[in-house]
Amino acid sequence: MVQVSALDNMLNDVLSHTGAVLFYLLIWGLVFAGTALFLGVFIPFITGDSLLFGSGLVAASTGNINIMILVIGTGIAAFLGDQVGFLLGRHYGRGYLERHGGRRTQAAIVKTESFYSKFGWWSVVIARFMPWARVFVPVVAGVGRMNYFKFLSSNLLGALSWGVGLTLTGYYAATIPGVKSAAYIIAGVLITASVVVGCRTWRIDRAQRRADAAASNHPHRPNPLSTPASGARRPALFHD
């Protein structure tokens, strides 16, 4: 079990060794890479909710971090990360998604496509709070040729509610008397859950990559992404 103050202590150690400027850049870089570079698929515990909440806790406990600079930069990083994912999906299509991960990842992509088709504009906002959907919804929206300005507006709302909102939640939870202990408990639960999910996802996906590689050495075995009748690739949910 992770101690309730583990995240706070870790980020405070980072701050003491790097200084405020590098601390800002580290937080912003991880938030950006979580969606733009698919980093959030395997290590959501350092690119997602717990990172934002923890950075807010640190800002509340030290005078070296300006909370306004932190939240503005975090919001911009979250916004730009999704914009990059959207443009990658729009320019490279579903083939870009199919090149990432094993069958578990592909199953998550299919679920994300269904989620996007069901909620449309709101899916981009809601997905911010769902580790897997947060990574794939921007790309799926790009593949589905979502109107650019609609995505822009939904991405902006999502970045504000998630990136700015969770960081401020951590900050104010730690500064309101009598709430700090609860804030540590919440942070501990978040980071523990994220670590477990991230490690389990990485191990399962690695095993499935090996299984896919072994299956490719047996051409007579059916392709899990093929249709039973013709062996053709499953058609994309969205078309240009």
From TrEMBL:
Annotated VTT domain residues: 58-171
Ranges where the record places region Disordered: 211-240
Manganese found in the keyword field: no
Membrane topology designation: Multi-pass membrane protein
Entry keywords, A to Z: Cell membrane, Membrane, Transmembrane, Transmembrane helix
Any one of the GO CC terms: plasma membrane
Subcellular compartments: Cell membrane
UniProt xrefs under InterPro entries: DedA-like, VTT_dom
Membrane-spanning parts: 20-45, 57-80, 156-176, 182-202
Pfam families associated with the record: VTT_dom (PF09335)
Principal location: membrane
Family designation: Belongs to the DedA family.
Protein name in UniProt: DedA family protein
